[in-house]
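Run log // design_07
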C-alpha cells in the first residue's frame, strides 16, 4: 500500500471522495462518481487498494465487526489493510472503502490510510453522547419547523425563538428562522412573527429594549439623610403642583412677601458624586416614562425620603428671588431648607388662582413671561397628550394649557435662571442649557406656523460655559428643578450643595465628562418614550377601528400633506392631487394600522 504504487483499476482517495485509477503517467487520470474524469498529481491522492476495481458502483455499505475490532485494537495503531481484514475478514476495494469510511467518521478510528489510531473509550463515549444529543436536537428542530409553519408552537419552542427576539430587539441583524420562512430579516418582521405565534402578546411594547433601556428601576442601597444644617422654612406653605397621579414630586412654590421661593428636592443630600447611586443615575440619564410604567433613574427609596410633600416636612434646595421693575431676577438666594408642602393637581390649582398666594404668584410669573417674550422667547402650543395604560385600558388625555401650568412653568424657569446666575457669579462649574437663535423672533400662531417653527429650531445644548438660551429668551439658564428624574439637574444640585457646604467642587472637566456620559443615553431614553407612546396610540386605534376625528394640515409638499391630529398628538401624511391650504381642518377616519411598522393610515371623509 505504498503511495506511489498506483496502477489502473486501483482505488484511491481524492480529497474525501473515492476515485478509480484509469492511467498513470506524469499525472494520474482518475474517474470520480458520476463518471467525471480528472488528471491530478500524485500528491493529491492516497491509495486505498491497488485493485482491481471495475467500477465505483461496487463500493456499497457492508457489515462487519466494528466494535469488536475497536476493542481488540485497544488504542493501538494499525493501517487500512489490517483494519479492513480485522473488521470484514478480507482486504478488497469494497472493504478498504468501508474501513476508510469508519476512519473518516472519526468515532472509533482516526488518522491516515498508512497510520490509523484507535480512539480511547473515553473519547468514543464523549463523541457518542454528543452525536446522540445532536440527533435529538435535529429531530426537535425538524419538529419545531413543522409546528412553526403551521403556527402551532408549544412552550418548549420558546428557546428556538430567542434568535427572532434578538432581531426584534435589534440585538442581532439576522435570524435563521426568518430566512427559512423566506421573510426579510428585519426587526419589524421579527415583531410580526413573535406576535403571530403568541410568543409576544399583541400589545407587547418592544421599544425600550430595542433602545437598550432597562425596564427595572435600580436596586441600590440608599443612605439615611445626613444631619446637615438647614434653614427652617416650614412656616411658609409650599405648593407642589403637578399632573394628577404624579409619583415623584420634586418641586414646589411658595411666596414670602414679594419673594418667590422655588423649592426642589435635595437629591444631592443622598447622591454624592461618583457614589453607586450617582453612577447608576448617570448611566440612565433620566427617568423613563412609558404609558405602562415609569422606570426610575434612582431607587424609589430616594423619592420616599426626598419627594416633596411625602412627609410632614421635606428637605429641599430652595431658590429665592424677587423681581425688579423690569422683571429681572434680583436678590437671588440659594439655601438648604426644611419645608412644609401641600400637593395639588393643576386642576385644583386652577380653582385657587383667584386666592392668595396664587393670585400674586400668577401676576409675578406673568410679568416674567412678558419679559421673556420681549427677549424673543418662542412659545409653541402644539398639541400634547398624556398616554396611560390603566388596568389594560388605554387613556389618551389632552394636556390643556391651564393657567396654573403656565404659572408653574415660568416659576421653574425662574429657578433655572436663578441657579445659573448664582453659579455664574461664583464660578461654580455646572451644566448650562443653551440654544442658538433661530430666524424666527416672534411666537407663531396657527398649527402650521408652529410646526414650521419647531422644525427650524436648533437643538438645545448642555455645556459647561454659560450662554444664551434663545428659545426661552434667557441670557443664562440651567435645568435645576428635576433632580429626581434628570441627571443634569442632579449635577447642578451636587455643585451648588458643595459650594454651600464649603466642600470641593468638581472641576469643569469632570462636569463635562459626566454630561457627555449622560447625554449619550438621553437620546435613547427620549426615543423609547416617543416610540412607546406612538405604540400605545396605535393599539388604541386598533381597538377603535371606526375612529373618526379632526386633522389639521401643517405642511404641503409634492402633493403630500402633513397632518396633525390634535386629539392624538399624532402626525400622518396624505396624498392630494391639488394643493391643500395650511391650517385647513379635515375630517379623518382610520383605514388601517400596522403596529410593527409603527404606522397608521387615515382617509378623508365628508
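design_07 sequence
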Amino acid at each position: 500500500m505504498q503511495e506511489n504504487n498506483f496502477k489502473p483499476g486501483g482505488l484511491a482517495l481524492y480529497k474525501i471522495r473515492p476515485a478509480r485509477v484509469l492511467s498513470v503517467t506524469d499525472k494520474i487520470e482518475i474517474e470520480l462518481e458520476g463518471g467525471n474524469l480528472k488528471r491530478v498529481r500524485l500528491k493529491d491522492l492516497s491509495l486505498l487498494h491497488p485493485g482491481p476495481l471495475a467500477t465505483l458502483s461496487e463500493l456499497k455499505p457492508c457489515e462487519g465487526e466494528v466494535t469488536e475490532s475497536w476493542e481488540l485494537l485497544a488504542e493501538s495503531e494499525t493501517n487500512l489493510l489490517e483494519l479492513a481484514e480485522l473488521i470484514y475478514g478480507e482486504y478488497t476495494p469494497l472493504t478498504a472503502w468501508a474501513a476508510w469510511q469508519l476512519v473518516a467518521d472519526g468515532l472509533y478510528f482516526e488518522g491516515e490510510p498508512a497510520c490509523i489510531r484507535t480512539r480511547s473509550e473515553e473519547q468514543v463515549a464523549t463523541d457518542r453522547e454528543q452525536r446522540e444529543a445532536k440527533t435529538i436536537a435535529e429531530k426537535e428542530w425538524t419538529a419545531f419547523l413543522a409546528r412553526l409553519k403551521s403556527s402551532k408552537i408549544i412552550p418548549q419552542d420558546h428557546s428556538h425563538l430567542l434568535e427572532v427576539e434578538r432581531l426584534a430587539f435589534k440585538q442581532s441583524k439576522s435570524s435563521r428562522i426568518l430566512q427559512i420562512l423566506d421573510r426579510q430579516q428585519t426587526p419589524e418582521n421579527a415583531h410580526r412573527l413573535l406576535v403571530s405565534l403568541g410568543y409576544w402578546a399583541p400589545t407587547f411594547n418592544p421599544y425600550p429594549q430595542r433602545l437598550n433601556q432597562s425596564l427595572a428601576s435600580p436596586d441600590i442601597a440608599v443612605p439615611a439623610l445626613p444631619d446637615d444644617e438647614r434653614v427652617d422654612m416650614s412656616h411658609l406653605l409650599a405648593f407642589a403642583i403637578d399632573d394628577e397621579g404624579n409619583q415623584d414630586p420634586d418641586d414646589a412654590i411658595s411666596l414670602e412677601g414679594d419673594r418667590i421661593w422655588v423649592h426642589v428636592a435635595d437629591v444631592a443630600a443622598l447622591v454624592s458624586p461618583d457614589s453607586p447611586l450617582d453612577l447608576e443615575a448617570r448611566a440612565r440619564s433620566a427617568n423613563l416614562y412609558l404609558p405602562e410604567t415609569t422606570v426610575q433613574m434612582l431607587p424609589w427609596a430616594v423619592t420616599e425620603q426626598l419627594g416633596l410633600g411625602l412627609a410632614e416636612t421635606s428637605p429641599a434646595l430652595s431658590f429665592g428671588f424677587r423681581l425688579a421693575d423690569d422683571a429681572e431676577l434680583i436678590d437671588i438666594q440659594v439655601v438648604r431648607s426644611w419645608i412644609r408642602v401641600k400637593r395639588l393637581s393643576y386642576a385644583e390649582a386652577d380653582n385657587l388662582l383667584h386666592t392668595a398666594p396664587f393670585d400674586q404668584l400668577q401676576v409675578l410669573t406673568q410679568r416674567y413671561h412678558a419679559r421673556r417674550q420681549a427677549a424673543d422667547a418662542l412659545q409653541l402650543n402644539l398639541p400634547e397628550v398624556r398616554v396611560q395604560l390603566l388596568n389594560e385600558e388605554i387613556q389618551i388625555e389632552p394636556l390643556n394649557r391651564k393657567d396654573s401650568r403656565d404659572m408653574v412653568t415660568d416659576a421653574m424657569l425662574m429657578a433655572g435662571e436663578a441657579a445659573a446666575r448664582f453659579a455664574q457669579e461664583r464660578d461654580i462649574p455646572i451644566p448650562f442649557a443653551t440654544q442658538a437663535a433661530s430666524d424666527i423672533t416672534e411666537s407663531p400662531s396657527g398649527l402650521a406656523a408652529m410646526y414650521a417653527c419647531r422644525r427650524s429650531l436648533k437643538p438645545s445644548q448642555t455645556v459647561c460655559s454659560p450662554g444664551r438660551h434663545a428659545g426661552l429668551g434667557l441670557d443664562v439658564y440651567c435645568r435645576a428643578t428635576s433632580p429626581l428624574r434628570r441627571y443634569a439637574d442632579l449635577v447642578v444640585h451636587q455643585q451648588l450643595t458643595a459650594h454651600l457646604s464649603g466642600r470641593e467642587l468638581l472641576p469643569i472637566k469632570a462636569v463635562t465628562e459626566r454630561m457627555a456620559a449622560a447625554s449619550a443615553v438621553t437620546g435613547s431614553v427620549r426615543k423609547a418614550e416617543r416610540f412607546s407612546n406612538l405604540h400605545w396610540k396605535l393599539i388604541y386605534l386598533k381597538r377603535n377601528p371606526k375612529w373618526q376625528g379632526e386633522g389639521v394640515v401643517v405642511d404641503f409638499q409634492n402633493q403630500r400633506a402633513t397632518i396633525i391630529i390634535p386629539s392624538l398628538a399624532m402626525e400622518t401624511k396624505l396624498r392630494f392631487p391639488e394643493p391643500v391650504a395650511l391650517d385647513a381642518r379635515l375630517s379623518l377616519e382610520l383605514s388601517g394600522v400596522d403596529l410593527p411598522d409603527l404606522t397608521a393610515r387615515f382617509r378623508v371623509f365628508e
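The domain at 544-604 is CATH 2.40.50.140 (OB fold (Dihydrolipoamide Acetyltransferase, E2P)).
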